[in-house]
Amino acid sequence: KQWYQRRVAITAGIPTVKGKKTEKEKFAGGDFTTTVEGYVSATGRGIQGATSHHLGQNFSKMFNIQFEDPDSTTGDKLFAHQNSWGLSTRSIGVVVMVHGDNKGLVLPPRVAMYQAVIVPCGVTDANKDQLNTHCTDMKKTLQKAGVRTHADLRENYNTGWKFNHWELKGVPVRIEIGPRDLKNNQVVVVRRDTGVKATLQNENLDDQLSKLLDTIHDDMYNRALVERDANMAVTTNWEEFCKLLDQKKIIQAPYCGDISCEEIIKKDSARTEVTEDDKAPAMGAKSLCIPFDQPADATCETCIQQSCSNPATAYTLFGRSY
Fold first, then answer.
1. Backbone conformation region of residue 196, classed left if phi is above 0, alpha if psi is from -120 to 50, else beta
2. Average pLDDT, the chain
């Protein structure tokens, strides 16, 4: 899970909560499942990022997967211990939902197909060849420096259309080059995540752009982290639990670990009336994981399920989820 959490943060700029799945939510037939869970602030829902399942010997016994015992002198065989793990295409959806905005995709630089797109501006018949040649040369220079770059030299679309097109696709940086920029040996760069513009000199542009891409990644991760932390609450009270859930928060609450209690929690926290915000009834809370980093000692608390008097075994992260 440490690897998963680092990889998702380093490449996709997504903060996650690492933990263990409850008995109800673990992989069917496995001994236990560990997971990293993301949070989508736009909808207030948790989403599973990646899992690893310890299958024990359950499936090797079922399919007769054996190996010779290295300590045996008589050729005895043992059933294999197995695991199953992976970072699936679900993570692509997490990137879209966590970072996207009303203009379209906002891609973290390290997973973007193109990290920068060059768009010539103020193109006329007189300067077209000069601008296009300069854009092509700059693309080659940046690509040689390891920046994945595309030059949009299409003539059947105007500049504004190209701006909108690449914003929709989420390219982290747009590089604008016009006649004045050619004259002043500079470019204008625009960040997709914030829309902030800056003028950069052509000298050492590859180094400047590489540093900018790292800054964009860190800023995207930190914004997502602030949003996640602002919407992750801790409570031991059932009424507050339901209120926090309707405020689109994910909640850490004491839980006894009993499957029947988890089913009741989901049923009792569901909202049947339709609100103006949701336009539809809201599902109840399900367990996302039992966080490895516990907010407090849960053993002195009783289970959050209001009719349960059993002591809690751990704080469990609950929320509406995908």
1. beta
2. 93
